[in-house]
Amino acid sequence: MLGLGMIGRHHARLLQASPRVTFAGAVDPAGDRHGVVHDPALVVPTVRELLDRGPLDLAVVAVPTEEHLGAVRELVAAGVSVLVEKPLAATGGEASAIIDAVREAGVHAAVGHVERFNPALIELRRRVGDGQLGDVFLIATERVGPFPDRIRDVGVVKDLATHDLDLVSWLGGAPVERVAAETQHRMGREHEDLVLVTGRLAEGVTFNVNVDWVSPTKVRRTRILGERGMLVADTLTADLTFYANGQVTSDWAASQQLRGVSEGDMTRYALERREPLLVELEHFFDLVAGHPGAQAVTLEEGRQAVRTAEAVLESAASGQTVVLDGA
Ligand SMILES: NC(=O)c1ccc[n+]([C@@H]2O[C@H](COP(=O)([O-])OP(=O)(O)OC[C@H]3O[C@@H](n4cnc5c(N)ncnc54)[C@H](O)[C@@H]3O)[C@@H](O)[C@H]2O)c1
């Protein structure tokens, strides 16, 4: 385990509790500030010290984003498979360097886009894939709340919106084709703290991403709108709700078009709620063990989210719509 900060402490908790792995230790130069590692002798300040204690099969990298590349290089060179927290890297170039290092080492690797393991989003994607909404025309995400108050090496686009830029592509089943964005700097930091993105996927679905660190309450909502209604996932509560379009009683075929959509039934689905971070780790264990059903997020997908984030920042700086390479 590398990094025992905000997210690393949760990985450490789950890794120590898992019957599928033996916890070899944790690396953090600042020590175990949250007191999560049961045996203090297992906390060391450098990767070298942990590797010197014996070979490792896998590691979770939860150090600040700008340090992902250095940490991954050191681990994979020692034959260790890695789950790298999202965003994969601070730049597309560093993400490519991570991909090269992993390929050269021949180890397994995945990116921690944990939202893909949220039960509400998994069920949302399944229902959309089964055609519940008919044709989909909009995916809209909202991820706003107060500043987490820790030192950040990147702005809200790379830190938080990478979740959404990955999600819209995963949910819509197509890469992001183009983006137009606006940002705000309200907290006097070097990086932006609010972003609004309007974009389009290669299949023609439009999307909207609304993310900030300056709202007084936390909202985590993803909604997909289609010709038969709307599905809304709340990833804080892991709830999924379907709002059906109302039935049109008249036989006149054009009536729906003339009157627009009306309100129909609302259904809230009962979902099995498992901790997304645990499900993500289990898929990573499966990947390392060579199980064919492992649903790990690939490094290429992680790089795509970083590149889309770069396009968002470029659009916000230039005031122009940015078309992504290869979309
Ligand atoms: N998946 C998610 O929902 C999620 C949530 C939060 C953070 N993250 C990601 O996880 C990473 C860490 O974020 P955080 O919020 O936990 O940060 P944090 O600042 O709370 O913790 C980072 C920890 O890493 C330690 N560290 C720094 N350099 C190190 C090194 N070379 N080796 C080992 N430890 C080192 C620091 O001392 C600190 O304890 C970031 O990439 C972030 O984007 C993901």
Topology of this structure?
Blueprint (H helix, E strand, L loop, with lengths): L7 H10 L8 E2 L15 E2 L2 H6 L5 E4 L6 H10 L3 E5 L6 H14 L3 E4 L6 H11 L6 E11 L9 H17 L3 E9 L9 E8 L4 E7 L1 E13 L2 E6 L4 E7 L9 H5 L3 E7 L6 H14 L9 H20 L3 E2 L4
Parallel strand pairs: 1-2, 3-4, 4-5, 6-9
Antiparallel strand pairs: 6-10, 7-8, 7-14, 8-9, 10-11, 11-12, 12-13
Helix pairs in contact: 3-4, 4-9, 6-9
**Could you give the count of β-strands?**
14
Number of domains: 2
Are there runs of 5+ residues with pLDDT below 50, and where?
none
Bound molecules: nicotinamide-adenine-dinucleotide
- By CATH reckoning, the class of the largest domain would read Alpha Beta
Spatial ordering of strands, largest sheet: 13-12-11-10-6-9-8-7-14
CATH-wise, what's the superfamily of the largest domain?
Answer: Dihydrodipicolinate Reductase, domain 2
Figure out the total of helices: 9
SSE order, one letter for each helix or strand = HEEHEHEHEHEHEEEEEEHEHHE
| Category from helices, strands and their pairing | alpha/beta
Percentage of residues in helical conformation: 25-40%
The appropriate CATH architecture of the largest domain is: 2-Layer Sandwich
Mean pLDDT: 94
Q: What share of residues are in beta strands?
A: 25-35%
Instruction: State the shape.
Output: globular
Please describe the biggest sheet, giving its number of strands, its sense, and whether it closes into a barrel: 9 strands, mixed
User: What fold name stands as the CATH topology of the largest domain?
Assistant: Dihydrodipicolinate Reductase, domain 2
> Any idea what the radius of gyration is?
21 Å
Distance between the termini: 35 Å
